[in-house]
Amino acid sequence: MKSKAHNSGFGLIEVMIALVLGLVLVLGITQIFASSRQTAAVQDASATLQEDARYVLTRMTQELRMAGMFGCLSLASASVSGVPAAFDDPIQWTNGTSTLRIITSNATQAVGPTSNADWTLVTDCRTSGAVTAGVATPGNGEIALPIRQIEYQLDAAENVLQVRSSGAGSFEPLIGNVQSFDIQFGVAANAGDPYVSGNYVAPGSVANPALIRSVRIALVLEDENQRTADQVYTVVAALRNRLL
Out of 24-28, 145-149, 222-226, 235-239, which region has the weakest mean confidence (pLDDT)? Predict the structure, then answer.
């Protein structure tokens, strides 16, 4: 007798099980991929905001630390001539326009034809000095300290932090996606005290600018694509010439 041949293979149930398992596997891999992609987008957005904040806060901190540092002689003495009234208040905050004005020295920059100095203090650091507008050349035994005015302003309509030099011309964009820009002052109890007394206060509550010892800057940045939550960044800049 001839033996009946038996054909082996997958039945419908086995095929259905294999399809279900394959579908579950594909869905799992897709979910992992989507989650990884979302995580990468969030990290990229956070890194971008952090880099923008680091850049602008580092820049402001360097300028604030040198604010009001006008050489080796006291500007209040009669030995220094031509001192502008603006030097009496080197850090100003205008709340209505969210504008920070800083009059700061740049001790590392040599005065020359390409200097961006708004004023130059020429002094012998012993007996006399003179402040002149623009660039000035020191004589024998003298040094020249470039001094400039920088302004930072928040364009609330465009969420852009802008910068302007010399107090003239239009503001130029610095960084975008800025939701808020604010500052507070650390104030000493009296003129001879180099330390901050109490909590930081709003600029409008400081009657005597000479008591300012440090400045706290606060920035809130947002991701325009809403990939991450708003990021808050703060930094404190101490005024070098008042912390002796």
Answer: 24-28
| Angle, alpha carbons 49-51-56 (nearest 5°) | 95
DSSP 8-state secondary structure symbol assigned to residue 183: E
User: By C-alpha distance, which of 89, 102, 87, 106 is closest to 152?
Assistant: 102
DSSP characters over 87-146: GG--EEEETTTTEEEEEEE-TTSPPSTT---SEEEEE-SSS-EEEEES-----TT-EEEE
Name, in order, each residue with C-beta under 8 angstroms of 92's C-beta and a sequence gap of 6 or more.
Answer: 100, 101, 203
Q: What is the pTM of this model?
A: 0.80
Phi/psi at 162 (5° precision): -115, 165
Contact in structure between 149 and 66 (CB atoms under 8 Å): no
Q: What angle do CA 185, 186, 190 make, to 5 degrees?
A: 120
